[in-house]
């Protein structure tokens, strides 16, 4: 690929499209950070989104860019990327986000982007474009991250329940209303530290393809800052359809359950960020909520709804990849 054929205008437009996706990621995934704290009544909705957005941005100063490196260099061979691939990947991810937001389905923006990259890469250069080992890690964590959330959320709920034996319910509720602010903040940190970096990675991939000086060595600071700002602004606007599904429909939560679910999810996201694995914050918190629900009784979880969500998870990568492959052909024809 001749990297000099990407014009400045095309570069600016594609960076803008990537930031739109980043904003939509925050908008779509706001429920991950605030659903439990809203459904338990600890914070009012508009206070909750501002709280979550703040910690989304603060993650900029905490996490290294390992997830961005995986997305930028570990999913598809940077040498085979051009503006058509980036355009198609973003269109595939954005289209799937819009569809799942409209129907209130908590699907993964992260895996929509991964699917978009995979579909665009396949359309452009076939299987040779893909970095197989990294994709296998991402696919594995589609299963691992919700299971970790499930296990940690449930385990924390059991530990807390044992520790609170004999304590009056009103006192427990009072304590965990305060502690849930801590857990919600930690989860929002993990959300920002994982999800903002996925857009950083794709913009980095674009800059490498455009042969921007210095891009191969490190991510420019303006990319990092703009991506964290975009996801925080998206969270500020919030995706209320999905908040209702996550916070009320899967299982009923009290502040102690919300604390355990958010803490279990946050631990999972922190580990993934340290390892540089782009996991789904949606999958993680859903697993944690289900884990907390099952500690009360098996029937406390609405398994039919949970099953529909799992089907959305399964379809995310192939559906967004299919849309991206079509967008690649459209882009080639139009541009």
Secondary-structure map with pairings?
Layout: H1 8-39, H2 45-58, H3 66-73, H4 83-102, H5 109-125, H6 132-163, H7 169-209, H8 221-237, H9 240-249, H10 255-275, H11 281-296, H12 303-334
Summary tags:
elongated; 335 residues; mainly alpha
Encode the helix/strand succession as letters. HHHHHHHHHHHH
Kindly provide the radius of gyration, computed on alpha-carbon positions and rounded to a whole number of angstroms. 20 Å
Ranges with pLDDT <50 over ≥5 residues? Answer: none
Please give the share of residues in helix.
over 70%
Structural class by secondary-structure content: mainly alpha
Give the N-to-C terminal Cα separation.
16 Å
Number of strands: 0
Multimeric organization: single chain
Which of globular, elongated, flat, extended, rod-shaped describes the shape?
Answer: elongated
**Rounded average pLDDT:** 83
Main sheet attributes: strand count, strand direction, barrel closure = none
| Proportion of strand residues | under 5%
Give the number of helices. Answer: 12
3D structure, described in words:
The chain is an all-alpha fold and 335 residues long. It is built from twelve helices and no strands. Helix 1 packs across helix 8 and helix 1 packs parallel to helix 11. The two termini are 16 Å apart. The mean pLDDT is 83.
State the gist of this model.
It contains 12 helices and no strands. The chain is mainly α and 335 residues long.
